[in-house]
Structures are given as C-alpha cells and as structure tokens.
Amino acid sequence: MTGTAPTTGSTRRATSAIDGAAQPEFKVNPHYRRPTVPVEHQYPKAIPPNISRQSPQIKLNDGEADAFRHLAHSIVSRTLAYECEYRQLGSPELSSSKWKLLKRHEQLSIYKKRGQKSDDDMDSNKNAKTPSVLCVGSLEGSLEDILYGTHSKNRDEMQATAGYLHNSHMDCAVLSVLESGTDDDPFRQLTLKWFITEMFGDARLVNHRDWFNIESIGISTDAWGRRYGYFLAKHVEHSGCPPMPADSDVVRGKMAMCCIYRQEPRSRVVDVYAKGSVDLGGGLPGFLTAFAPVAMMLSLEVYMQSAEGKRLTAVALEHAKGREGNPKNSETTESLIDMLAASTISSSISSSEDTTAKKPKSSTLPCSVCGKKAALSKLVRASHHKCGICKERVCSKCYVKRNLFGRKAPVSVVCCKVCILASKRQEIDPRQPTPILPPTS
Length: 441
Hints:
Blueprint: H1 62-88, E1 99-105, E2 108-113, E3 133-140, H2 143-148, H3 155-165, E4 169-179, E5 189-197, E6 208-221, E7 227-235, E8 250-252, E9 254-262, E10 269-279, H4 286-289, H5 292-298, H6 300-324, H7 333-341, H8 351-354, H9 377-380, E11 385-386, E12 393-394, E13 399-404, E14 411-416, H10 417-424
Parallel strand pairs: 6-8
Antiparallel strand pairs: 1-2, 2-3, 3-10, 4-5, 5-6, 6-7, 7-9, 9-10, 11-12, 13-14
Helix pairs in contact: 6-10
C-alpha cells in the first residue's frame, strides 16, 4: 500500500512520553478532544445523534486500490491454505504440547502456539508481543447468516451493526468501497472502514481506541470446487486516515482477523477456522490486553445472532406496514417504532391495559401459539405477553427475547416462535438496505 501514516513532529509537549518508552496510559483531561481522523469527519462528544450522515471518503488512486485488493486477496488465500491443510488432516484436536488452549466456549476452541511468535500476516504488530491466536470449531446456523450478521455497506448500516455486535461501539465511517456484491456473489464486499470504541467502560482511566481496517467478505470455491465463506478485517495505513495526535484521548489500535467458513449440504452447522491478533497499544499491561484476541474470536457467535436480529427486524417492519394499511387497526408504523424504541413491548403487558372498555375480554385471550390461557386469569386478570413483532398474545413457554436493529442501539422485544420461524424463511440479499427501525423523532 502506498499511503502511510504521518510521522510525529519534532516539537512535543512536556507531558508527552519519551520516544521509544512504553508508558502506561494516564488521562490529564477526562473530556473528549475532537480528533483529526478520519479527515473531515465530525467526532461527537458522546454517542452520535440519531441522524443519517454520510461518511467522509478516502480517494484512492489506481495503485493504492490495487495494493489493497492484493493485500486482502493474499491474506485470505494464505488462511484458506492453512484451513484446507487442517481439513485434510481430519480437523484433529490440536496437540497440547504445541498449542495452549486459551478458551473453550460451546463448540469453539481458541489456541495460542506455544513458545513461538507468529511471523505471518495475521500478526497485528510484528514488533510487539501480540502473537496470533487460532480459533477452530463450529456454530449453529448457515454460511449466509454468519456473513450477513457482520455485513454493512454504509455508515448507517455499520453504525447499527456495530452497535449490535459491540457494547463499546461509539462511532464509525465507511471510508472507501472498492468492491460490491454481484449476482454471482451478493455478499462480496471490499471496504476501508474506521471506527472508535470505548475501553473497559471508563474513559477517565483508559483512552479510547480507534481502528482503521480493510474489510473483505464474500463466498467463493476452493481448488476442489468446495464452497466456503471468508471474512477479513485487518489494520492498514493511509494518509487519508492517520492516527490521532499523541496528546489526544484516542489511541490507534491494530487488529487482524481472517475467518474461513464451511457448511456441508443440508447441514445447519458452520465449521469455523479463524486466525487473528489484537494490539491495543498505549502501553497497557499484559493482563489487560491478553484477553483481547480471545474476545475478538468469541464475537463470531454474535454474528449469527446479528443475522437473526436483521431478519426479525425485517419481519417486524413488514407486520407494521401491514397494520398501517389495515383501517381496522389504529396502530401505525410510527406508533410501533415508538413502542419499540421505548422497549415497552419487551416486557409483559399489564392487565390494566387489557381490561379497558374497548377490550374487556383481552385478559382471557389464549396463547396464539399453543392455545393455552394464562393461569389464574379469571382471579387476578393475568394475561399473556404480547409479541413485539406480530402483536399476538403468547405464553411464557412460546416466546423468547430477541434484539431488533435500532439506529442507536439494539431494541429488546418479546418474540413468539411463529415470528422466529417466519424470520428463518426470509430471503436475504445483502445488497439490499439492512432492515433498521426508523428513528422515533
């Protein structure tokens, strides 16, 4: 790649760290400063307001664009070669003498190679002690869902998706789109993205981190004609998105993650092979940074949940549109969104709301899924929950709580099993706009 981050000038503040010395983070001023990156990007002092804003764009010349394409292709190809070798060996349990098990959760296992620092492209910083980790295992779901869960094409979609995947998300921008989906591969996408996150939930103690990555996603076939999905997110450098000043409250982090996904025909399980590393920078002690790559790998499970959230949001918007067109129903799309945003439908509907003059018998309505009435409904006027998507009554055994996609943050709702099944039958095309609940105001 031709673009590089600018070097720090010779004049430094008296409070700046000595060159070459790793200093722990200490914040003199707890207030946010306006950073200078990305160029022309307005950085809010808090979580961004609920308005649609276009991301600033990095202008790449042909040489830079080709360099980024080559970088992404080479890393995915190399990771695919490792994955193919692992599969040809029968996906064996890794040797405990060579690999240290860091974490096992459900069907995912995360390892670090013993006694050897990795020298491949997945090291986030080859000069730092940030060896790459390996994640192998499987997840329930489909190949399309695990890609759909993290797919975003513009700032609004990235904002909603990142807010769903990470509690620490603050702001983001899609700085350049090099490749987009096609009829042969609708998931295909190559972008440059920037985002900023909170660290450990307390800005007074630890600086925030910002990240500038190249992201590649898509579905392809290997040399044997077998289908696989891939996802790559790796830090890059370009003069259009330099790190923030040394005296700012934001430190540039470096991450690298490349995942290869496989799904056998008629299977509901996705096999995972992923390598990655994280360098948080800022002179943080090792015990604070050691878990970062593990947490990054565990986020793969949330990708599946994110895809389900997008599907359910699409179903909710369809139901809201249908109710809006029904003259017998006084609810409009806006009223539904107001209820969603207030999270009022995520809890039980009180009996007082169901025993008004308009609906005197609503407290005795049976569950729309199993047909059972609420226990002791005649004595205490107890009622079932109301599905936040289809608005039908549902008992405690026939609903689950799920998160829908909102612009600022996910919205928790009660969801009946019928809507869950309906969402699984939804046809998805990642080239279409991501379903997001409209703003409440």
